Amino acid sequence: MACSEHEILLHQPMEPFRPDIDPGPGAVYTNFSATRIQDTIRSNLHQINAASGVNNHMGSKFTANREKVEEALEAIRQDGLFFIDSLTTPRSVAYKIAKKLHMSAGHRNVFLDCRPTSGATVREMKRLVAVATRWGKAIGIGHPFATTLQGIKQFLSAYPGLCAQIEFVSVSRLITGAKQLRKDHEK
Questions:
Q1: What's the CA gap between 152 and 34, in Å, rounded?
Q2: What predicted TM-score, i.e. pTM, was given to this entire model?
Q3: Measured CA distances, 2 to 33, 63, 98 (Å)
Q4: Are β-strands 53-58 and 110-111 bridged in parallel, bridged antiparallel, or unpaired?
Q5: Exposure of 67 by Cβ count < 10 A (0-12 exposed, 13-18 middle, 19+ buried)?
Q6: With 50 as the cut, is the pLDDT of residue 134 above it?
Q7: Residue 177's pLDDT is what?
Q8: CA–CA separation, 60 vs 86, rounded Å?
Q9: Which one-letter DSSP state was computed for residue 95?
Q10: Where are the domains positioned within the chain?
Q11: Which is nearest to 179 in space by CA: 71, 171, 23, 10?
Q12: What does the pLDDT look like over 57-83, one tens digit per residue?
């Protein structure tokens, strides 16, 4: 998959606020030691082997915990990967800490498939374009659901005018480009 120029991210399961919700295998929790957090993330990355970055799956409790986020991001930083904060809670400190650690990082602007229907994805794609048009960039997060892909295809064919206003790029290019824009601005 990496050979076909698709970017691969580890969608790292992290502890949610609700203990009755299981984030899935390979999750990290706030009661884990720093070593266990980092070993878990590295093990998950090793299973993928071609990841260029990481974003959080769930994680509302984990990403609000400054100490645990820093421990997790340290493993990601040491591997030279970027981090995208899914912003599953407004209390998340993950993006701020990633920037403090001088990591390439970004945060989600729009979830494309909170509701797993193609119609909902089309609506969220419109929101994504509106955010990108207003702010010059936007990060949308979607999952590999058939309805998400169907909704994106429907959007692309139904709204060619909106699509002409923006350029779809890989997330690493977007956050790298943002970093370069800041460097150019500082000159």
A1: 39
A2: 0.87
A3: 32, 28, 24
A4: unpaired
A5: exposed
A6: yes
A7: 46
A8: 9
A9: H
A10: 2-107, 110-186
A11: 171
A12: 999 999 999 999 999 999 999 999 999
